[in-house]
């Protein structure tokens, strides 16, 4: 192992870019975001400052910054590298810092660390540094991914309230991210990293496509039923046309509810398969669904208008409810029309001649 000198001239172990040889402790510094010019957010800056204090106080502690590219980083430099440079500027010796992870969010950070630790069994203690608002989700993820290592979680201070717009946005999104993380967690940390599960991965991909296509077909069938019923008035010349139309609308509502249920079932199954696919890809560090943004969760996610970025499943539910209400409205209108056309109970007019056939003869006799 190479050795180097810090600013005081003391010998310190040198950390190769891809090795933890000679170290028994690792500090993971989670990233946040930066602007297009490479300037770190206030949240990331505070994490770097806290990490610098810890690394300077313990020369036997190796540091690892996380994050590469994504919505959080639109510059030409990986986010983790920007944080690493900031730690160097704060006085942390270069030999104490590993090459940053090529990860995109907290779960991929954890799996990247897992792959690194699997190659270096000498690490006895792992510390994870992040902000207070991010700690609950971070601990939830890392405890489940790094099950074989004792973990220590360290809080960096949060930015001051109302002083950082990005922090306010992150804080608002965190609760929703944590909830979705808990609901959709997939535990693949026990997989053998030595061999990629090719057959299982291929089967998962087929299941994902299969149920995704079925969900689209069910949704299309519901639309066909609705437009078919709405486009043509059935049995208009039948004496009981209103009753027949009401029956058709009721059957259409039942059919649409059936297809809606099938859509939700198929969409949930496809989403489960997608979550497992992404987890396997993150675990093994291979490109695929996990390396690209999820454009199917939100309708028009790519739109620059925020109000168009709605959840796809919720949007479908709203549309289906509107369709059902429309059909109920048609039924109500038919009933009102039918009730207005009912004949009234009036006496039948009687011809004057038939009242008394002998009236004229009696009148003639009297005269």
User: Structural class, please?
Assistant: alpha/beta
Our Rg estimate from Cα atoms comes to 35 Å
- Average residue-wise pLDDT: 76
Order of helices and strands: EEEHEHHEHEHHHEEHH
Q: Give the full name of the CATH homologous superfamily of the largest domain.
A: HUPs
Question: If helices are DSSP runs of H or I spanning 4 or more residues, what is the number of helices?
Answer: 9
Shape designation: elongated
CATH class placement of the largest domain: Alpha Beta
Strand order of the largest sheet: 4-3-5-6
Q: What is the annotated CATH architecture of the largest domain?
A: 3-Layer(aba) Sandwich
Largest sheet: 4 strands, parallel
Beta content: 5-15%
Tally of structural domains: 2
**Helical content (DSSP H or I, runs of 4+):** 40-55%
Which spans of ≥5 residues are poorly predicted at pLDDT below 50?
A: 1-18, 298-309, 344-367
Q: How many β-strand stretches?
A: 8
Q: What is the CATH fold-level name of the largest domain?
A: Rossmann fold
First-to-last CA distance: 148 Å
């Amino acid at each position: 192992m190479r050795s180097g000198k810090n600013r005081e001239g003391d010998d310190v172990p040198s950390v190769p870019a891809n090795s933890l040889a000679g170290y028994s402790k690792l500090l993971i510094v989670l990233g946040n975001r930066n602007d297009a010019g490479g300037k770190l957010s206030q949240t990331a800056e505070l994490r770097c400052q806290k990490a610098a204090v810890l690394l300077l106080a313990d020369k036997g502690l190796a540091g690892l910054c996380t994050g590469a590219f994504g919505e959080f980083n639109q510059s030409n430099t990986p986010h983790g590298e920007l944080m690493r440079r900031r730690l160097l500027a704060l006085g942390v010796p270069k030999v104490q810092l590993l090459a940053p992870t090529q990860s995109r969010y907290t779960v991929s950070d954890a799996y990247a660390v897992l792959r690194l630790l699997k190659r270096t069994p000498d690490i006895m203690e792992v510390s994870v540094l992040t902000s207070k608002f991010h700690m609950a989700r971070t601990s939830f993820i890392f405890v489940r991914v790094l099950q074989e290592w004792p973990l220590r979680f360290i809080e960096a201070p949060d930015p001051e309230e109302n002083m950082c717009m990005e922090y306010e946005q992150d804080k608002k999104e965190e609760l929703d991210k944590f909830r979705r993380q808990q609901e959709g967690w997939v535990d693949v940390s026990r997989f053998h990293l030595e061999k990629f599960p090719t057959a299982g991965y291929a089967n998962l991909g087929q299941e994902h496509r299969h149920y995704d296509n079925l969900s689209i077909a069910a949704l299309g069938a519901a639309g066909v039923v609705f437009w078919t019923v709405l486009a043509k008035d059935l049995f208009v010349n039948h004496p009981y046309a209103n009753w027949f139309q009401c029956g058709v609308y009721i059957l259409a509502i039942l059919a649409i509810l059936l297809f809606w249920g099938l859509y939700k079932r198929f969409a949930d199954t496809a989403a489960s398969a997608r979550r497992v696919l992404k987890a396997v890809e993150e675990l093994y560090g291979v490109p695929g669904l996990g390396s690209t943004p999820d454009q199917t969760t939100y309708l028009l996610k790519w739109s620059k208008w925020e109000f168009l970025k709605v959840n796809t499943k919720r949007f479908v539910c709203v549309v289906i409810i509107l369709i059902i209400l429309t059909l109920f409205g048609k039924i109500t209108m038919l009933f009102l029309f039918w009730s207005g056309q009912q004949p009234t109970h009036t006496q039948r007019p009687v011809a004057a001649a038939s009242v008394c056939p002998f009236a004229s003869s009696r009148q003639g006799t009297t005269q």
